[in-house]
Amino acid sequence: MRRVVGIFLLIFLAGSLSAGKLDKAFEALQVYNYFKAKALFEKSYKKDTAGAGYGLSIVFLRQDNPFHEPDSAYKYVLTAEKSFARLDEKKKAKLFALGVDSMEIREQKEKVSLLFFEKSKRANNSVALNTFIKDHPWFKDMDEAIAFRNRVAYREATNENTWQSLQAFFTDYPEAKQAATARHKYDRLYYEYKTQSKKISAFKSFIKDYPMNPYVGEAQDEIYARSTTKESAKVYHNFIVQNPNNKNVKEAWKRVYMLSVTQNDPAQISAFLTNYPDYPNKNEILLNVELLNEDFLPFRNGNLWGYINDKGVEKIKAKFDWVEPFSEGLAMVGKGDFTGFINKSGKTIVPITYDDAGNFINGFAWVQKGDFLGLVNNHGQLVLPARYDNVGEMQNGLIRVQREGKYGYFNNDIQLKIAFRFDRAKPFEKGYAVVTEKGKQGLINQNGNYVLQPQFEWISFLNDSLLKLKIEGNYGLLNIKLDTLLPCEYQFIGELSEGKIMVAANDEYGFVNELGETVIDLKFTFSQMATSDNEFSNGYKGVRNSKGLFGLIDSTGDKIYPIMFEQVGAFNPDGLTAVMRYGKWGYANSNVKLKINYKYQFAGDFEFGLAKVKIKDKYGLINSDGKFVVPNEYDEMDDFAQNVLRVKKDGFIGLLNRNNELVLSAKYEQIEEITENLILLQLNQKQAYYNLTDNAFVFVEAGFNLQPPIEETVTEE
What we know:
Number of helices: 17
Helix content: 25-40%
Shape: elongated
Structural class: alpha+beta
């Protein structure tokens, strides 16, 4: 209490005033005689309002007397302040002698206000605090009072938690530090209030009526989600048309593209552009089509790999530790121990973070993390997390997947279509799949229901419409409608070949057609050896007897060659057919007359008037007269691109045409066909690409030791 001692000291010294009531009142107040002081102040109040009002305010403020009454203390101090301001200097001087001046009155007023502030704080509600702030504008700690009021009011608003309560708060207290938070909460609650029906129309109205609300974006998301509950390109496109200003239009276009182009197929992309002429990124798509139609070839620069085109132009910089050929517009590449996929723009589509992966087939590829496999689509999305033991290929709209030893199937939308319950499973064909349970095979449809119970040792498709069965050691035949064509009573049923299927019963075999009808009677002796060559070729088929000797029959079952040969090649009715006797090969005509003697270790079929033969462990080409056109000087010989031969001599490989002209000298370690015109050469563990049509190298790796192709005729030794 400032100047308290001074007040009462002045009272003692003011002898000339001591006889007055006001003087005596302050004297009584000094000795805490509140009854006397109050009575004297009240008697002096009318005449000495300023001094008496000040004294009464002190009496009513103090809590050590029965007169404590804050409202009266408040009233009298304001009266004293107002009255004191109207006094002349002489009267103010007399009061000063008693210790009363404007400063003391202001200090008393602050004490009164502090009491009211503490009281309003204890009330702990905004009404009481607002009343205090309104009634005590002079309070020296008004900033503290306002801050406290704001905290209490904000708490009340958030406890009520309605948009109205929060709006009232930031409207009434715009300067409060909680105003921004309140506004944010209000925006949220008001958004929820206006869209509580969860109808698309409500979200659209909200966006239209309150475009500045921060939850407009969420409203757009809700419209997007509720408009695209069905996953189809048409649904997403309808959303785009109906909501052109929605922030999700770009994502919707992405979904339209992903659902329309599932395999990076130029035909699919062209169809997409035709179906959606309003697609905004046509140039990007057209560039993608152009790149898809261009051949990309792996090339090495130093220790890193990239891609060139078939003209030798670098398309993707060499920056990978290894690369694979492109498949469905994507290529597997590696950095360090990890692999991922890039497109032909060089953009990473599948992150290079996987331990292993497979090529894309029908728009999907498996990826491996640790010991488990997952699945990515051709847009780089991980559609199945890496937590499966085995992942197959997407066929007929379903993909088989193994988890914890059991197989199930996911559909194109990567939803589990058939539960994990099979011990083994094969891909779907024509709407059916062969599965195994408890060691027995059965057939399921695309709903996972058995159409053939698991009781068979073996089930396989001969083609899209025929099924071969095995039960208790016997074979049978069904069509795709599961009609029985042949009961499970046969010793053997072979593969479908030129419309015929070999069947055996009672140690004899013949042939049936695709309807199960006999077309060649079961009249040939059946043995296990007969099962190894049970297919027709160009209307003819080799047949064996029990001694293992071969003959030939035609499509009616008539014998063309008697069963007398150790081996018979593909029958040529207009030329020569390779036949073996006495451990050597020769050639006979259609009348079974030997035209070229038995002398070859190997004899191939005649093509373009020439046949590959082996004699003295060397290969060459002979004509129908048995004369060598290409001498027998090669260790290996096989057909290659553009009707040329790949030959190996002294450990090195070259290319030779059928006129005995070298295309490439036999000096390469490896030659592989890349395209119809392009081949890959390897020399000194370095690579080069060579165009067979242009007879020119398109790319040569440093260190390949390039030499021009040799064009010369090799004469027979």
